[in-house]
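User: Hey, quick favor. My workstation is busy. Could you predict this chain's structure for me?
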Amino acid sequence: ILQMLSSTSGSNTIHFGDAASGADSYKGYINYSHSADQLDFSVAGATRLRIDSSGRVTKPSQPRFRAHTTANTDITTVAIIVYNATTLNVGSHYNTSNGRFTAPVAGLYTFTSVHYHNYGTAGEVRLALYKNGSELENSRLSRSTSHNYYDRIRLTTELELAASDYVYITGQGIGGGELHTSNGIGYSDFFGHLVG
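Assistant: No problem, here it is.
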């Protein structure tokens, strides 16, 4: 048994380093805070995993993003949708210039895209997720008559990615349908994260 004792306001730490002094002497560490009753696991000098007093596990550096469009457009022919603004982009793995998320590490990822079938149009709209240039998943929404309101279309999937694999979303309108992108958060979004 290895036991380390501290006051109720103190902490116990195990350091992993490759130097006798300075920041390199504790590049990795495990720290238990008695005042917060939480356990931190740190790599490269920063907390990467935390278990709080209720047993909740958080990973501050876990790759995740949420992106949206900033223009109102109606898509009829197949086009890559570039979500050109982000509200979240941990690790900067989503690119607002080309619409791609590039996996920094191999693992299971989840992705979602949401849009609208434009009002005043009938026909079909389609979202598709591509991995490394090949379509993997798609979602379709059809209506036989035009309406004066928008209908919501959503595509959600989980997939295994290797490091450096990339994914992006395309949109399309078919038979008179128009896939609408909107200016603002929550209307035309693309988001995802590493599950593990």
